[in-house]
TrEMBL record:
This is RND transporter. GO terms for cellular component: efflux pump complex. GO terms for molecular function: efflux transmembrane transporter activity. It comes from Sedimenticola thiotaurini. InterPro entries: RND_pump_MFP.
Length: 383
């Protein structure tokens, strides 16, 4: 026992000589920690929601019945995978009809071209009745020349009119082809809208339909997102906006595990909410520490608040009496005394700040739950 006491005194003397706080020094079976003072800029914990880096809501673009659904919530897919397909039987029938119209218009165009060439090289206005009879011969020698001399007939004008009529038939056939092609393009666009492909590698977060459901344009089909990279969406008060800038590193506390992780300012929205006077800010979250929809508290610096000057203790020193946190402070005669405290925010390396109940320089048990310390505490409580 005498050797152990000398070792304790020697360790304390070396710590004091080195200018270090008296922490981690064994004292009668208990490990003490000297409460330290932490100084720094004040921070404000703001609640936010974990969101995917990319998220889309696929909606129906035309009426129809759902005939294919790739999977359920949680299923992952690669980019370009067919996710949802609507029944396209009616659209395919309309496309076949449009193809038939296109074929008819093409045939009309060829026929009009043949008629135009015939009129160009063999004008109808100069043709006569067939045969070598006297009526035909008389018509060629006397009737037509006399009509031209009298001004009642002009073969050149008739030829130009016939050529123009043939040209109009060609134009009409070309327009019919363009109309049929436009109908096919419109139907093809609707056929593309009848299916929903994965826009990127991701996972189905929520589905709103089942196979056989009848959909109308605008109805949501499913929510698809990239959950490999996550972000935190936080509404930051406008007074805290000047302290933030893109790529700035901050800390966030996960609501589920209480783990403190580093986050980075990814995007600061340019405008503020006129009603709530807040600015939306996105923070990049490390991979694999959370999931979409979870609650996270981000510590944002508050430049308008006074500099923080609070005691800091290990989180293992806190012992809860019901819902009230407390620590065991070294009392008179070296006996531990339970003292209730008000806990602040979690810090790095397993430390927490104390808002009230402790002052700098006091000695507390580092871990009251270990075997020797807990037995010592029970004996002190029995006394």
């Amino acid at each position: 026992m005498e050797i152990q006491i000398h070792a304790v005194v020697l360790a304390a003397a070396l710590a004091v000589a080195a200018g270090l706080p008296l922490q981690g020094v064994a004292q009668e079976g208990g490990e003490y920690f000297v409460v330290q003072q932490a100084q720094g800029a004040s921070t404000v914990s703001l609640g936010g929601t974990v969101i995917p880096y990319k998220e889309v809501t696929l909606s129906a673009q035309l009426p129809g019945r759902v005939k294919h659904l790739a999977g359920i919530e949680g299923d992952t897919f690669e980019k370009g995978t067919l996710l949802v397909a609507l029944d396209d039987s009616e659209l395919l029938a309309k496309r076949n009809a449009a193809l038939a119209q296109l074929a008819n218009a093409d045939a009309q165009l060829r026929a009009a071209g043949v008629q135009y060439n015939r009129e160009l090289w063999s004008p109808q206005s100069k043709q006569t009745m067939g045969g070598m009879g006297l009526p035909n011969l008389f018509d060629q020698m006397f009737t037509r020349p006399m009509e031209g001399m009298a001004g009642t007939r002009n073969q050149n004008v008739e030829r130009r009119a016939d050529l123009y009529a043939s040209g109009v038939q060609i134009t009409q056939a070309q327009n019919a082809i363009l109309s049929a092609q436009s109908q096919i393009q419109a139907i093809d666009a609707k056929l593309r809208d009848a299916i929903s492909l994965a826009p990127f590698d991701g996972v189905i977060l929520k589905k709103f339909v089942e196979v056989g459901d009848t959909m109308q344009p605008g109805q949501p089909l499913l929510v698809y997102a990239d959950v490999e990279y996550l972000q935190i969406m936080v509404d930051v008060p406008a007074r805290l906006r000047p302290a933030l800038y893109e790529q700035m590193m901050l800390q966030a506390e996960l609501d589920v595990t209480g783990q403190v992780v580093p986050v980075r300012v990814a995007q600061i929205f340019p405008t503020a909410d006129s009603q709530r006077h807040t600015v939306k800010v996105k923070f990049d979250l490390p991979q694999g520490v959370s999931a979409p929809g979870m609650y996270v508290k981000v510590r944002v610096p508050d430049l308008t608040a006074p500099v923080r000057n609070q005691p800091v203790i290990p989180s293992t020193a806190i012992r809860y009496n019901g819902s009230l946190p407390g620590v065991y402070v070294e009392g008179k005669g070296g006996r531990p005394e339970l003292r209730l405290i008000r806990v602040g925010e979690s810090l790095d390396n397993g430390y927490v700040s104390v808002l009230s109940g402790l002052s700098s320089g006091e000695r507390i048990l580092r871990n009251p739950s270990n075997g020797i310390a807990s037995g010592w505490i029970r004996r002190a409580e029995e006394r």
